[in-house]
Design brief:
Blueprint (H helix, E strand, L loop, with lengths): L2 H36 L16 H23 L2 H4 L4 H15 L5 H20 L9 H8 L2 H25 L4 H30 L8 H27 L2 H24 L7 H23 L17 H42 L1 H5 L1
Helix pairs in contact: 1-2, 1-4, 2-8, 4-10, 5-10, 5-11, 7-8, 8-9, 8-10, 10-11
Amino acid sequence: MPQEMEDFYIGLFLAIFSSLFIGTSFIFKKLGLLRLAKNSATRAGQGGYGYLKEWMWWAGMILMTLGEFANFAAYAFAPATLVTPLGALSVLVSAILASRVLKERLNLLGKVGCFLCVIGSTVMVIHSPKEQEVANIDQLKAMVAEPAFIVYATLVVILAVFLMVHTAPRYGSKNVLVYITICSSLGSFTVMGCKGVGVGLKQTMRGYNQFTNWMFYVLLTIVILCILIQLNYLNRALDTFNTAVVTPIYYVFFTSLVMVASLILFKEWGAMKIQDILGDLCGFLTIITGIFLLNAFKDFSITLRSLPGLNKDGASGSAVENNNSLTTTNDRAFLLENGQLESLHTDIMVTDYQDSPEETLA
């Protein structure tokens, strides 16, 4: 087997195992946060850190660490455009376990939204340009110094700082997108840093020591710092909002920003064909549709049985409902019409009564 294909399959399997571990870790961390809430301690959504004493949360943290290590190793063998979208598996694992373990309800439109998010991300991966191979850290350092990536990194840092300082304290507990945007924007740096650290370790194992390269430690620091901030705000999102909603939205935002950062850093925009551009646009619109279904109808009880067309008595039920509606409408019109007549008659009687006080006195 050629070396490139061997690296591809190693990265593929590592990415799959990473998604399984990370998807399961969401459930354990949520259970730990729920146990904390029962103890009347300061919740993570309110800025508390009592979850550090919960073993269930630490079990989820260990699973997430294993998943991140597998994900970290996958970036050393496969391109980010392959590894990152495979995180869709974590969405499916988390959604299934949330409904089974946490008893969180995800209605029909929510399930369709999850499916659309996965399909849209898959379409974007299929039509996105393939990432250029990074041979060493020095090559990556030259790519990071390009103006386009510097502008992107500056905008992302400004956005993340603004959300953390200004928006999160006011609206973080009301809108799930606040915490998710912070995690996703910094997550794009985490992936690029993991790619660099993975390449450095891969070089070191092949006989080219990178532990003397200062860029290796810069990338490692970025990875650790971004992961710590991500965990903080991800815990707040999980503590405040439904897991079945947080996980797919986090995946979509995270994947989209990583794809953008990867395309800017590795400069494949100019190599895209027209059909790939249209495919990316279609995938992006599909993702937006999925996000809309997840958020707009999450509080409605919608199931397959509630759909008239799939109900055994759907036709007759619809007819009865229409007849009842018609009857109700006719009754309402009748009552309104007679009510006006009765009101008019009452006014006349009251007027006659008031116009003849002498008879009453007599």
